[in-house]
Amino acid sequence: MSAFLQKFDLSAHVRADAPTIAIKDSIDIAGYPTTAASRALADAPPAPHHAEVVQRLLDTGWRITGKTNMHELAFGMTGINDFCGTPPNPQDATRIPGGSSSGSASAVGLKLVDAALGTDTGGSIRGPAACCGVIGLKPTFGRVSRQGVAPNVTTLDCVGPFARDMNTIIDVMLAIDPSFQVVKARRDASKTRVGILGVDADEDIANAVTEAIRRAGFAGSNLNLHSMTDAFSAGLAVINAETWRAFGHLAGRGKLGTDIESRLRAASNTTADDLSAAEYVRRKFTNEVDHALEGCDVLVLPTMPALPITIEAARAGTSVIGMSSLIRPFNLSGHPALTLPVSIEYSSLKAGLQIVGRKGEDETVCAVAARVEAMLAE
Fold first, then answer.
1. Which residues, listed in sequence order, are joined to residue 7 by a DSSP beta bridge?
2. Which residues form the Amidase domain (predicted)?
């Protein structure tokens, strides 16, 4: 099992002590094939150019050390991959690492790199980060360039960073997003107004989130988003339609994992009416989140409603789709969302605290997360 698909070192003209970063294999690196960890794309030609985010990292002095493993075609939540291997979960090797950016979360959690890039279409950064006990940020939709990232056309997917500390998350964002305001991201966030969302999650995880906010000194008000469940379902409809459009031509060739073949076949049944209904929910839920953020600066909630299941349980058929119930809705709406590990009482595993901000205010999300991190470390 490996977090990496390919290890190499793009270190020309980079100082020896430069920070290291790994890149998910759905993001182009010139001279290397972008296979999305799939046998169906194993013979893809080398990418002719770097993705824009890769070029920006190199231009700002980051040392790229390889391409990371992932759930095949970025279309799964477990991170299990029988073609390329399943990356180990640093918190508990018996549990799933989460998908689809499994290798990126694993590599950071195992301290193989300082940071990693992943992509998040339905929770694919935040889910693995929460599973593996690291930090993961899904930026505002459209804020970070997706040039050179698969799939080419999406209304959900975002490129974002993994790291073990907020300082590194901010450094990566500064590199990949020329509009990122580092001073704002590192400001004192003690006066931030926090809305605590009521959601369906295990009691010990909900308590861990509430305790972390209390220890950070935030005065939180309780809120509800009534369209969360509808937004989750709508997000599934959209990702199914867009993934079938991007990769449906690979189905039926005998080169896809059985889980991906099955999911693609099901995705092909998404109708125009399904998408029309999903777009209605998108508008409704987006407005609801925007309205909630008029009365506070960020929303907080658990990243996942439960701890990650075991690999054995996943292979036995235990459903994992519910693990994205609290993260997928914010792909549909496009708001920035970050997961930060927090301790659970009586458990060696950490849960994820999710922080959601106004569109374009990724820096505020980072500042709040940095304060929580600092206060929990005291």
1. 66
2. 21-366
Q: What is the pTM for the complete model shown?
A: 0.98
Residue 100 annotated to the active site: yes
Determine whether 191 is an active site residue: no
pLDDT in tens, 125-183: 999 999 999 999 999 999 999 999 999 999 999 999 999 999 999 999 999 999 999 99
Residue among 26, 38, 124, 324 flagged as catalytic: 124
Q: Which of 2, 100, 101, 106 is catalytic?
A: 100
For 177-211, the pLDDT digits (tens) are 999 999 999 999 999 999 999 999 999 999 999 99
CATH number for position 237: 3.90.1300.10
**What is the tally of structural domains in the chain?**
1
In angstroms, how far is CA 287 from the centroid of its own chain? 23
Q: Which domain holds residue 194?
A: 4-377
Is 124 a residue of the active site? Answer: yes
Burial class (CB within 10 angstroms; exposed 0-12, middle 13-18, buried 19+) of 345: exposed
| Paired tokens of 208 | 């861990």
